[in-house]
Amino acid sequence: MADELLEVHRVRAGDSPRSRLRAELDGIAARLHVEAGVPRTDVVGGDFLDIAQGIEHQELARLTASRLAERARRLRHALTRVSDGEYGICAECGAAIPAARLLAVPDATTCVACQSQLERAAAGRNGGDEEATAG
Fold it and tell me: What is d(CA 108, CA 8) in angstroms, rounded to the nearest whole number?
């Protein structure tokens, strides 16, 4: 069912940035609505493996919802950048973000070169163990 809802929101490369962002945001909202319920774990009558599996399903549902909510936040920020006339301009160096990057990462706020620098700097601060968030 979620796939059917998402199909309505497919976008084309020729669409305006605002319509692409809005369609993706609408798709995420639809997924959040469909996947909103966190499965309950029935502790009574279940064996240890059933309970552990139920808890795992709960954690996966929460993680998915959290990631979708974060993605929606970044897309709303991108829509604000469109309204402000800043969409497609690197927040770090002021250069134009290539259209191919914006198609691949519609909520990108940095060009590839600046994003690489940010990721290297973050990896250096974290000892190389964590990834920086894409943007």
Answer: 23
Residue range 18-77, pLDDT digits in tens: 999 999 999 999 988 887 666 666 656 678 888 888 889 889 988 999 999 999 999 999
| CA gap 5, 27 in Å, rounded | 7
**Sequence-separated (6 or more) residues with CB below 8 Å from residue 135:** 74, 105, 107, 108, 109, 110, 115, 118
CB of 68 within 8 A of CB of 32?
Answer: yes
At 116, is the secondary structure helix, strand, or coil? helix
pTM value is 0.69
